[in-house]
Design brief:
elongated, 3 helices, 113 residues, mainly alpha
């Protein structure tokens, strides 16, 4: 049985043939780089917003000891979160400097096919 005898060849669409081929390693490296950058940015913004909301809870606590204590601990944890994100950024920059690699120094870029 010769089922595939008259099928022919498959050709790419003309607009795809014009596109530059993408190096898979560069694409994955860019994807990881952008993921790390995005994670750092989002984590810092969330911890900053958490600290602001905790400050609002502190102001609106009305002198209730339990609410004031909860607000202070939330403010403390928000600052700790920001310090962890800043420390992570510093460690990544040190790794870039010592090993001469570019992890996040090239900036945040959207992946392009």
């Amino acid at each position: 049985m010769r089922l595939a005898a008259g099928i022919g060849t498959i050709t790419a669409p003309p607009e795809l043939a014009k596109a530059n081929p993408v190096d898979p390693q560069a694409y994955v490296a860019g994807f990881v780089r952008n993921g790390i950058s995005l994670l750092l940015i989002v984590a810092f913004i969330l911890s900053f917003l958490f600290t602001i909301i905790a400050g609002i809870k502190f102001v609106t606590s009305g002198g209730d000891e339990k609410a004031v204590s909860s607000a202070w601990s939330s403010i403390y944890y928000g600052f700790i979160g920001m310090l962890i994100v800043i420390g992570s950024y510093a460690i990544i920059r040190l790794i870039e400097t010592f090993f001469g690699v570019s992890i996040i120094s090239s900036g945040f870029q959207l992946p392009t096919p």
